[in-house]
Design brief:
Blueprint (H helix, E strand, L loop, with lengths): L28 E11 L3 E6 L2 E14 L4 E4 L4 E9 L3 E14 L4 E13 H4 L13 E9 L13 E8 L2 E9 L1
Antiparallel strand pairs: 1-3, 1-10, 2-3, 3-4, 3-5, 4-6, 5-6, 6-7, 7-8, 8-9, 9-10
């Protein structure tokens, strides 16, 4: 995995920078966990004031990484808005909320926002389970909240995920940005 370094400020010459010698570190990523979430059927709400909305409830699932593991509790969901653009392209704006329960009894509230984008003809077939993750892009910003001291480091973590949908399942790998 590569992260593009920022150019030196003398290459960004259209702006008079007040601190051109202030060099920031390039972020890195640390793997946090792999997650598989089982979904119910999508419920189409329809075209509303914010766009073409659908909802889906999460039935449960599992997650595991070096520092945490457990299950997804039933009852969370996704409240997405889908928009067509650029002819044959489509983007779903994802907005999920759900709870995790760790193997040692902690409850962690997760919220993700992000996009799933690609050719409309590809995205409309995701429910079939035959579309590979290289045929579209699904990326998430993940936030976590817990009152359990053992996992309180998640409250301050900046997290992202690379995700995909396989039939009735969402799968993602979550990373902490350092």
């Amino acid at each position: 995995m590569s992260i593009e370094k920022a150019p030196s400020l003398n290459q960004l010459s259209n702006t008079p920078w007040s601190n051109p010698d202030y060099s920031l570190p390039t972020p890195s990523l640390t793997f946090l966990f792999h997650l598989e979430c089982e979904m119910e059927s999508f419920k189409h709400v329809g075209q509303g004031p914010h766009g073409n909305r659908s909802t889906v409830i999460f039935k449960g699932g599992r997650f595991e990484g070096p520092k945490l593991r457990g299950e997804i509790l039933p009852g969370g969901g996704d409240w997405e808005i889908v928009r067509d653009h650029n002819g044959d392209q489509q983007t779903a704006y994802l907005d999920t909320r759900y709870n995790l329960q760790t193997h040692d009894g902690a409850t962690i509230y997760l919220q993700t926002t992000g996009t799933r984008t690609g050719k409309k003809s590809v995205l409309e077939k995701l429910g079939d389970g035959k579309i590979g993750p290289g045929e579209y892009r699904m990326r998430l910003h993940v936030t976590a909240e817990t009152g359990d001291e053992r996992y309180s480091w998640l409250n301050q973590a900046v997290m992202i995920a690379s995700a995909g949908r396989v039939g009735g399942q969402v799968i993602y790998d979550a990373y902490q940005v350092l």
